[in-house]
C-alpha cells in the first residue's frame, strides 16, 4: 500500500508545518507559526519579504476561516505581527 492509498501525510522532522484546523505546529505543538518556523521562513524569504507577507496573509485567511475568527487582531499579530520592519526609504 502506498502513501496515496492510505491518505497518510509524510511528516518531515523539523519542518514545523501547521496542523489544521487548529493551526498548531506539527513538530512542537505551539501555535503556528511557531518560533522555529518563523526563523525558517525569515531565512527562506530573506530576499523577498513581500512574498513572505503574501504567504502569511493567505495562511491568516485560512486560519481565520478554520478557527471561525474573522477580523481577529490576535490572529493578525500571530501571523504578521512578528515580521521585522524595514526602515522606509524616502
Description:
The protein is 47% helix and 4% strand. It is built from four helices and two strands; from the N terminus they run αββααα. Strands 1-2 form a two-stranded antiparallel sheet. Helix 3 runs antiparallel to helix 4 (73-81).
Task: Using brief descriptors, characterize the structure shown.
90 residues, mainly alpha, two-stranded antiparallel sheet, 4 helices, globular
> What is the succession of H and E elements?
HEEHHH
Q: Between the first and last Cα atoms, what is the distance in angstroms?
A: 60 Å
Number of helices: 4
Q: Report the uncertain regions.
A: none
Report Rg.
15 Å
E-strand count: 2
Strand order of the largest sheet: 1-2
Q: Can you tell me the overall shape? A: globular
Q: Helical content, roughly?
A: 40-55%
Averaged pLDDT: 85
Task: Give a quick account of the main beta sheet: strands, pairing sense, barrel closure.
Answer: 2 strands, antiparallel
Structural class: mainly alpha
Tell me what portion of residues adopts beta-strand conformation.
Answer: under 5%
List the helices and strands and how they pair.
Elements: H1 3-6, E1 18-19, E2 24-25, H2 35-44, H3 49-67, H4 73-81
Antiparallel strand pairs: 1-2
Helix pairs in contact: 3-4
Organism: Micromonospora gifhornensis
Protein name: Flavin reductase
Write a compact overview of the structure shown.
This protein is mainly α and 90 residues long.
Amino acid at each position: 500500500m502506498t502513501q496515496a492509498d492510505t491518505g497518510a501525510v509524510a511528516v518531515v522532522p523539523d519542518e514545523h508545518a501547521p496542523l489544521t484546523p487548529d493551526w498548531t505546529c506539527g513538530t512542537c505543538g505551539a501555535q503556528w507559526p511557531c518560533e522555529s518556523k518563523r526563523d525558517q521562513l525569515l531565512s527562506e524569504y530573506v530576499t523577498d519579504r513581500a512574498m513572505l507577507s503574501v504567504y502569511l496573509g493567505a495562511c491568516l485567511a485560512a486560519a481565520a476561516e478554520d478557527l471561525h475568527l474573522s477580523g481577529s487582531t490576535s490572529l493578525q499579530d500571530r501571523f504578521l505581527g512578528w515580521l521585522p520592519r524595514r526602515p522606509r526609504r524616502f
